[in-house]
Amino acid sequence: MERAYHKWFSKELERDMELLVWGHSGAPVIFFPTRSARFYDYEDWKIIEALRDKIESGQLQIFCVDSVDDESFYSKDAPSARIKRHLQYEKYILNEVIPLIRNLNPDQRLIAAGCSLGGYHAVNIAFKYPFIFTKVVGMSARYDLTISLPHFNNLFDGYFNEDIYFNMPNCYIPNIHDEQLLNQLRSLSIIIVIGKEDAFLENNKQLSLSLHEKGINHDFYEWDEEAHRPRYWRRMVQLYL
């Protein structure tokens, strides 16, 4: 498989950012890492290897981006600063990563994908910008980071503002009434995958119900067990990407 490493100083984040590109052509995929993980972890976990056939045959080109989760959602800064840093990361994806993709790959499709917190990143950015993305795959994710669950805290310590609201899909999807935006979401290919024993199961069911009530078609898959480990994700990417 073709493998390329990129690093540059991000103006949006005011720090160096790194990413890996796998493949030479096909539908480009922005692959968001798990909680506080790095751009090389999907390679280390053999998840990229699981996609070898699709990458080598030119069906997919994978862009494994880095995260700033330790500077945003998992930082010790004030909650308002956490969401602000997340929005800077979003601008990095929109204004720096996507232009790189468009420069390297003429395919006009664009897929967002991720596992665990990476699934949140993928679904949130695709739902906010459905006119940019053509497909999104969220695996083992939660879509409201303001709720507390066993072993998973409210990432804003009970603080809530407009920026947080507009970045929690389970909050904003039920309240979308703009028909143009709804039609854009309806044109998006949406795949949501969660384990039956995953702590985020009900959170995923809630998102699926909200999408259904808005007439937004999507595929919702429940896997046996928790299904929140690389060995499951290796199989998921083969099926859904």
Automatic annotation (TrEMBL):
<dbReference type="Pfam" id="PF00756">
    <property type="entry name" value="Esterase"/>
</dbReference>
<protein>
    <submittedName>
        <fullName>Esterase/lipase superfamily enzyme</fullName>
    </submittedName>
</protein>
<dbReference type="InterPro" id="IPR029058">
    <property type="entry name" value="AB_hydrolase_fold"/>
</dbReference>
<dbReference type="InterPro" id="IPR000801">
    <property type="entry name" value="Esterase-like"/>
</dbReference>
<dbReference type="InterPro" id="IPR050583">
    <property type="entry name" value="Mycobacterial_A85_antigen"/>
</dbReference>
